[in-house]
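Discussion board: Methods & Data

I've been asked by a reviewer to show the raw model output for two of the constructs in my manuscript, not just the figures. I'm not sure how much to include, so I'm pasting the format here to get opinions. Each protein appears as its amino acid sequence followed by a line of discrete structure tokens. Is this the kind of thing reviewers expect to see in a supplement, or should I convert it first? Here is construct A:
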Amino acid sequence: MAENKESRTDYALLQAWGGGDDDAGDALVTRYVPVLYRFFRNKLDTEVDELAQRTLMACVEGRDRLREDASFRPYLLAIARRQLMMHLRKRMRGDRARRVAEVPVDEVLGSPSEVARHKEELKLLSAVLRRIPLDLQITLELHYWEEMPVAEIAEVLEIPVGTVKSRLHRAREVLRTAIDSADAEEHLRRSTIANLDGWARELRQQLDRQSP
């Protein structure tokens, strides 16, 4: 009887894929395409598929670094973050390239195309997320969209666990300030800030609906 790929662990699928089992690779890709799409889509207008593919290939190449008892998702997103930073550095020069994690995405790539197509609050939140420093954007998205525990966020960002809570607090404050100073009507800015958690979850749902 053929083994059911859907019942196998991420670790088993990754190792099998690295050993040449393309069916295992397809199963793992199917599980994590939405995660990678969410990660890249609100930062990039183009090359999302290419960066997702690079990330998955890097996961396979580095599979020996993943412990069997470890969660695959932070391993995957840590690699996605590194791929994104390499991608952005190619478009930057000098000191800004060295501190890419501190630079807002839209300073490198320009303003986003429309991701949130319906509610004005979602459009505002999607745009403003790209105007805060990259690692603060990633921190918020890991918290709101992936609902990651502190230890996993620390793994993705490659920072101590004790730093994550303070970074989350700072990220929320920076985001609120950016929304409050955005070029938008006051009632829209107030509405977005008042239900920030809810709008963040709804933005995830909208990105999921657009996922391949």
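Construct B, same format:
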Amino acid sequence: MKAVSLALVSFWLFAASVAVSQTHHIQKLVISSSWGGLGPSGRSATTFLLCGDHYVQAGRKVPVALFESLESSLREPSLSKPNPVNLGISATWLESHFRAATGQTTYFDYSTGSPAQQSLFHDAFVDEKTIQQRLDRVFGSFHTDDYPSIHCELTFTDGKRLILSTASQNAYMIPWVVEQDSSKAETYNIAISQALFNILPKKFVNRSRLTDEGQFVMGLLPQLATNTASDVKQQWETLGAQNRAGDALETLKRDYQIRSAEVNSYHNLDYGTKWEKSSGPREENLHADLRREEWPKHFYLAAILLHHDQQTDGVDDLREGARKYEDLIFSIPWINEYYKAHPDDYSWLFFVHGRSFTEKAMRIFADDMKEVGHEGLISRVAPVQEQAALLEDARGDYWIILPDKSAILWRVDSLSTVMGWSSSLFPFGRCTDYQSSSGGCSGIAVSPEGEIIQP
């Protein structure tokens, strides 16, 4: 289709209405609407016909004024992106809707936040200067298992036809695609949605998506609240950590820059206890991403320090003991070369309760290597596990770096490349615990010189 400005499509309607005065109206409107996803699908279809001074749909009369609103919305200029004014969003709107937004934060519980955390979310949500950027992200998002669509065919009294359609999952189901003859354009004008909402029968499929009335679950307010919470999540967590482990973080600042921090009870293959009823109280840790100025810009020490009874253990151990693992990583030429060639890749060197490669990690590693048939690696790692470093790269692959500067790819999550190599060079099998949705356990070694050592 030839893409043109919606203003040209709208001009046709405007010019025709002037030429024929009040006789140029929608003669017939045929609407079909469907939804598919998790749960029962839905479909509705109906037709509106002009009959004198009103429209008729399934035996009910519909006022002409409702259709005049639809015609008027089609005469309005095109909106190439969501517009705060068109959406009715202003500083006053943001402030008046803030309290409702606190119940839609998704990424954290606003009600349990400290005064500083709650102030952070408030200031971000009501910030009118960032609303366009947030709207662009909200309306550029996609929700899985949610497939709505509306298709409208409009026939006018002079025989001309116009098609309106949308498959948008977002509030008001904008943008609308407007087609007339060979012209096709897109607009984010919610006046079209509002006009159709007023025209359609109450139980018509997708009708509720054309409005924010009743706080519809996919409406604009929940999306803005969730989007804002995502933006401030890292700061929220850091403020929470400062509130609970401020002294520890201040000490760490003497040696490191702190990118993020959080106190939680998470667990993974190298730290924490599983969330099981029989395991007793959950282990809480201070998690902090730390970096030194001289490191690659996205290389971090993932510090995990035991937190209990309102105190954090192991800060001094980290300051004294982490350096040897840092030096080990950066003493390996092929790793340094990789970071130079991939400056935007993230990596995390773990330091958990005084060491990099923990007893928990060793147990799982041993089980994994037995599972994939590389038991010989267990006796190679076990004697030096206190000196070994555990490294996670940008793609979720886990490496064990041994004190002799050789490396073992323990777990591979990437299905394309592994630290610059093709992932096909690192065959893998299923892991015994903490199995990811893709990849698995490998057990392929790399020499200090960067050569793959096949088992």
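Answer (T.O., handling editor elsewhere):
This is acceptable in a supplement if you add a one-line summary per construct. For B, something like: The chain is about 30% helix and 25% strand.
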